[in-house]
Specification:
Length: about 375
């Protein structure tokens, strides 16, 4: 009766079942997976957020498929006016942006190349549009890099685009300028688009001249840069994302026109958040400063606790909200996370949630309140 696109299974995994049991029993679980900034004890300017949402212009319905001019102008200012307003199209979220782009670029059965490890959402989003995800590896050699030989080997006649997550979630690795040059050459040779997910790009831990922060100024191939209020302003509940379309005019213009047709079919972005966009983006520096202070403090504590002579290892991270810890191979990843939750009331994520190719890695959220992070980490380290 139902579409095979939804054959994902709905039963919770072992970790989910154990967590439900713990919480039902009233256990105080130290959650080191927190990714929701509105639940992480941050100090929002609530009055200013609510005031921005009270704009009376939002009471009038004026459908604009690409988004109202005021909101797109505000986003152009976010990019320091490097991006013309007419290259910006609004969506209700980055997830919806992916859906629009899969519809734009791919027919059923076509393929999208996505990084491994990375956030485990692409398969689900692609399946909803009957698109196949083919993974290409990121390799770790003191830092994370694209394996271009493996990437090229995965390109077929059905490949339509390469997804870049910059910085990657959860590895926190940025695309480098040398990698971008290789990627552009590869995509130009095969006629592929680039989808650049840049939601964490404001959260670099330090400056690096070799780093690429955004692809909004790419000219040689069609590139789509995705971001939104969820991370930029720490406001995931206010559903506003966007796509910036870059590349040669001969391809960029028809791509944007087709995206506008898709957006016109849905008209999903609410007027209230569009009129508030300028004010909400204006608040981003305060919330980003608080988030960066939090994640840097937790990362410093993590690195201070795990030294060179430790059985544990912290992988290099350049930005974002997460850290990767390599655990001693005395347990499998599954055993590590289940034991930590069952016996220590500490919740972490295993690397296989993000398709790490080998074990044993634990993924920790640096967004976690410092006192919870520190106590949880110390319980983890007492295990070996």
């Amino acid at each position: 009766m139902f579409s095979s696109r939804l054959d994902w299974g709905t039963s919770p995994n072992k970790l989910g079942r154990l967590l439900n049991e713990k919480r039902s029993a009233g256990a105080e679980v130290l959650d080191l997976t927190e990714s929701n900034p509105t639940a992480a004890g941050l100090s929002y300017g609530f009055e200013r957020v609510l005031a921005a949402l009270a704009d009376p212009r939002s009471m009038r319905y004026e459908p604009a498929p690409a988004g109202i001019l005021a909101a797109r102008t505000a986003i152009s200012r976010y990019y320091s006016d490097r991006v013309p307003m007419d290259r910006i199209l609004l969506t209700a979220s980055t997830s919806e942006a992916y859906g629009f782009l899969f519809k734009l670029l791919a027919d059923p059965g076509d393929e999208i190349l996505a990084p491994r490890p990375s956030y485990p959402l692409f398969d689900f989003l692609a399946a909803l549009d009957s698109v196949r995800v083919v993974q290409y590896p990121l390799v770790y050699e003191g830092g994370w890099f694209i394996d271009f030989e493996a990437l090229a080997a995965r390109i077929t006649s059905r490949t339509r685009a390469v997804v870049i997550v910059n910085p990657n979630n959860p590895t926190g690795s940025f695309l480098k300028k040398a990698e971008l040059s290789q990627l552009i050459a590869l995509c130009r040779r095969h006629g592929l688009a680039i989808l650049s997910d840049e939601v964490f790009s404001d959260y670099g831990f330090k400056e690096d001249p070799a780093r690429v922060r955004s692809l909004v100024e790419v000219e040689d191939v069609v590139a789509f840069s995705l971001s939104g209020l969820s991370k930029v302003s720490g406001l995931p509940q206010l559903k506003l994302g966007w796509i910036v379309v870059s590349g040669p005019e001969s391809l960029r213009r028809p791509a944007f026109d087709r995206l506008e047709l898709i957006a016109d079919t849905y008209l999903s972005v609410g007027a209230q958040v569009q009129w508030a966009a300028g004010a909400l983006l204006g608040l981003r520096e305060e919330i980003q400063s608080e988030i960066l202070t939090r994640v840097r403090r937790n990362l410093e504590f993590l690195r201070g606790k795990i030294g060179a002579d430790s059985a544990w290892r912290v992988l290099d991270v350049e930005g974002g909200w997460y850290a990767i810890v390599q655990a001693p191979r005395i347990h499998t990843e599954e055993n590590w996370v289940l034991t930590l939750l069952d016996q220590d009331n500490v919740l972490v994520q295993p690397g296989f949630f993000y398709d790490f190719e080998k074990e044993a890695f634990l993924v920790l959220s640096l967004l976690t309140p410092a006192e919870v992070f520190e106590e949880g980490l110390q319980r983890i380290l007492r295990r070996a």
